[in-house]
From TrEMBL:
InterPro entries: NAD(P)-bd_dom_sf, SDR_fam. Pfam families: adh_short. This is SDR family oxidoreductase. Keywords: Oxidoreductase. Belongs to the short-chain dehydrogenases/reductases (SDR) family.
Length: 218
């Protein structure tokens, strides 16, 4: 039997890296989309050590055509996609009186729009049982005014996940955002590895009681 496949959009050394390694340990092959070639190569090496077939692509995920092409290529090479994980967001330290409309739209294109592109590209290669997971944040409900666009991104991506879940449910594909209600750190309940475990659990919920948003409070 072929191994299941997860494609991670916005891969890097934090939560997305932990998600990639956790799924690899659980028997998944992993496709990685990110912007830092060195980080992707290092993560790809970790996946190889875990016995996973890893594919990496350096791509700006706000470039819709390039992102769609990469996801399509990965899906064809792997033979399908079982889980699509979406991680990116933009942190821009500007309050609402400093933030320009162009800056807000640029950040939303990364933190929300790129999910739409990614799902639309992955959908033809997903079947019943497929899952879409998203790294959410308490900023959706309690934004820090000094980084106003982040709260907009996290509220927007959560809203989009709810719509994706309802749209894809008839086909047996479900979407979920994991709202991380804490600050990421190297120790304690909010390490990237602990958050990755919460994302794994959310992706493997009982479908009868499926929730398209799952809070993680540690």
């Amino acid at each position: 039997m072929s191994r299941p496949v997860i494609v991670v959009v916005g891969a890097g050394p934090g939560v997305s890296g932990s998600v990639s390694r956790l799924f690899a340990r659980e028997g998944y092959d992993v496709g990685l989309l990110g912007t830092d070639e060195e980080q992707l190569a290092e993560l790809g090496g970790d996946l190889e050590e875990l016995g996973a077939n890893g594919q990496i692509a350096v791509v700006d995920v706000t470039d819709g055509d390039a992102t769609s092409e990469v996801i399509t290529s990965m899906a064809e090479n792997f033979g399908g996609i079982d889980v699509l994980h979406f991680n990116p967001s933009a942190f821009r330290e500007r309050d609402p009186l400093e933030l320009t409309v162009d800056e807000l739209l640029e950040d939303v294109a990364l933190g929300v729009g790129a999910l739409l592109t990614s799902v639309q590209a992955a959908r033809p290669f997903m079947s019943a049982g497929g899952r879409i997971t998203v790294t959410g944040s308490m900023a959706a409900d309690k934004p820090w005014h000094k980084a106003a666009s982040l709260g907009v991104q996290k509220a927007g991506v959560r809203n989009l996940v709810h719509s994706l879940d309802k749209t894809l449910e008839p086909d047996g594909i479900r979407a979920v955002s994991v709202t991380v209600r804490g600050t990421l750190g190297r120790e304690g309940a909010f390490t990237p590895d602990r958050v990755a475990e919460a994302i794994w659990a959310a992706a493997h919920q009982d479908e009868e009681g499926w929730q398209s948003e799952v809070p993680y409070s540690g």
